[in-house]
Every structure is written in structure tokens, then in C-alpha cells.
């Protein structure tokens, strides 16, 4: 079985670059090939970047989609990969913890970070694993989500509706970096992203309606879905 790690990444400011170097080193402990992609020119499109990375990886069985500023508990990554082989979207965490600038700096210096500002509810993104069949069933990541926000929830809803979901009890950790100032165009993207996300949420848990929506949105061809009805 071939497992790959796919990361959306476009070089930017020093804080994000520093986080990415740390994350890349963290992934070296696993026997997985890593692929990163920047997506198309223009506003950052994390869906397109993830799809590009998955395509660049070639023939894979399970893909771990990971953010460039997030790490987890090492022992839970293989467990999520194993769970994903059952045709579900699998997460190696149930808790998201955002580190402060001081904690992040401590990690960069090789010191323990201490306790962070954890979010106890599960996040739809950060680090997740899917097998090839489920990825193709949902049509990959929806590239109509431009800029930042909501594409991970749409992907999660589609995957859990057509496959299922598994979570390993544990925590992932987000390395601090400055949040980019939102420009008017970015705000417009977010509004459009939210509306598109709502289309997915409306059919959450309804496989037939989800298949029809994916066809309507251009994520998959009708011929691909027809056999599932």
C-alpha cells in the first residue's frame, strides 16, 4: 500500500515559512512520500493545491492531506491511515489546539510548548486521510472555494456522507503565525465560499442527494455516479 502526504503550500512571509520547515521535518519520521503544490496563480486556492499535490503523487492508495502549519501526535497518524482503508475519511485527532506565539517559538527552539488554547470540538481539517476510491467518489477537493475557508468542511461532509468518518482520540497542534489582513476581494470570496459550503451541508447524511449535488456542481460526471443509484 502506498501512502502519500499532500500539502497546499505557497511560499509567503517568514512566519509561515518557518512553520512549514518545522512541519516538513516533523513528517520525516514517517515512511510516506510528501508532495506539495501551490495551486493556480491568483488568490490562494487550497482545494486546487491539494488536488495538484494528489495528482503529482501519481498512483497512491491513501492520501494524508495535511496543512503546512499543523502537526499531530505521531502514533495516531498510522492509525488514521489504516482506518481510511475502510473507505472513510479518517482524522488522527478529536481536539484542535492552537499554540500561542510563545509556545510556537518554544517548539522552534526544541523546548516543550506547554498547554495551548485547545478547541475541544473536532475540526474538519488540519490533518486527514482518505483512500483513493473515496477521493474519486467525491471528485476530490472542490476548487470553486477560492481564498481561505470552508473547503475542508465541504470535503468532510461529502466524504462522511458517501463513505463514513473515523476519528482517533487525540490532538493536533497549529503553529502560530500572523493572520493575513482580509482585503475586500477576500471577503467576497469568503461570502461565496460560505454559500457553497451551505449547499453541501443541506445534503449532509443523504447519499443520494449528495451524489446529485456533486454532479450538479461539476465535481463528478453523471456516468460515474449512475452505477451508485
Rg result: 17 Å
CATH-assigned fold name: Spore Coat Polysaccharide Biosynthesis Protein SpsA, Chain A
Query: How many beta-strand elements?
Result: 10
Number of domains: 1
Please report the number of helical segments: 9
Keyword list:
single chain; 229 residues; alpha/beta; Spore Coat Polysaccharide Biosynthesis Protein SpsA, Chain A; four-stranded mixed β-sheet; 9 helices; 41% helix
Describe this structure in words.
It is globular, with a radius of gyration of 17 Å. α6 (151-162) packs parallel to α7 (184-202). It is α/β, with parallel strands linked by helices. It has helices at 14-27, 46-56, 76-84, 101-108, 132-137, 151-162, 184-202, 207-216, 222-226; strands at 3-8, 33-37, 62-66, 70-71, 89-91, 95-98, 117-119, 127-131, 165-167, 171-174. The chain has one domain (3-226): Alpha-Beta Complex (Spore Coat Polysaccharide Biosynthesis Protein SpsA, Chain A), CATH 3.90.550. The model has no long low-confidence stretch (mean pLDDT 92). The longest helix has 19 residues, at 184-202. The strands form three sheets. Strands 2-1-3-8 form a four-stranded mixed beta sheet. β1, α1 (14-27) and β2 (33-37) form a beta-alpha-beta unit. The chain contains nine helices and ten strands. The two termini are 30 Å apart.
Amino acid at each position: 500500500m502506498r501512502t502519500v502526504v499532500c500539502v497546499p503550500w505557497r511560499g509567503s512571509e517568514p512566519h509561515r515559512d518557518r512553520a512549514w520547515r518545522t512541519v516538513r521535518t516533523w513528517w520525516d519520521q514517517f515512511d510516506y512520500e510528501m508532495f506539495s503544490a501551490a495551486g493556480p496563480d491568483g488568490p490562494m486556492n487550497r482545494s486546487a493545491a491539494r488536488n495538484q499535490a494528489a495528482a503529482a503523487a501519481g498512483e497512491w492508495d491513501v492520501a494524508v492531506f495535511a496543512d503546512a502549519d499543523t502537526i499531530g501526535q505521531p502514533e495516531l497518524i498510522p492509525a488514521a491511515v489504516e482506518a481510511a482503508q475502510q473507505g472513510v475519511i479518517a482524522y488522527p485527532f478529536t481536539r484542535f489546539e492552537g499554540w500561542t506565539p510563545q509556545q510556537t517559538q518554544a517548539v522552534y527552539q526544541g523546548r516543550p510548548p506547554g498547554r495551548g488554547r485547545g478547541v475541544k470540538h473536532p475540526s474538519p481539517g488540519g490533518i486527514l486521510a482518505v483512500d483513493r476510491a473515496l477521493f474519486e467518489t467525491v471528485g476530490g477537493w472542490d476548487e470553486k472555494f477560492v481564498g481561505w475557508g470552508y473547503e475542508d468542511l465541504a470535503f468532510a461532509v461529502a466524504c462522511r456522507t458517501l463513505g463514513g468518518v473515523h476519528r482517533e482520540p487525540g490532538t493536533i497542534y497549529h503553529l502560530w503565525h500572523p493572520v493575513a489582513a482580509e482585503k475586500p476581494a477576500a471577503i467576497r470570496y469568503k461570502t461565496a465560499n460560505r454559500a457553497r459550503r451551505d449547499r453541501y451541508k443541506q445534503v449532509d447524511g443523504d447519499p443520494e442527494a449528495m451524489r446529485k449535488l456533486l454532479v450538479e456542481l461539476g465535481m463528478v460526471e453523471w456516468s460515474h455516479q449512475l452505477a451508485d443509484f
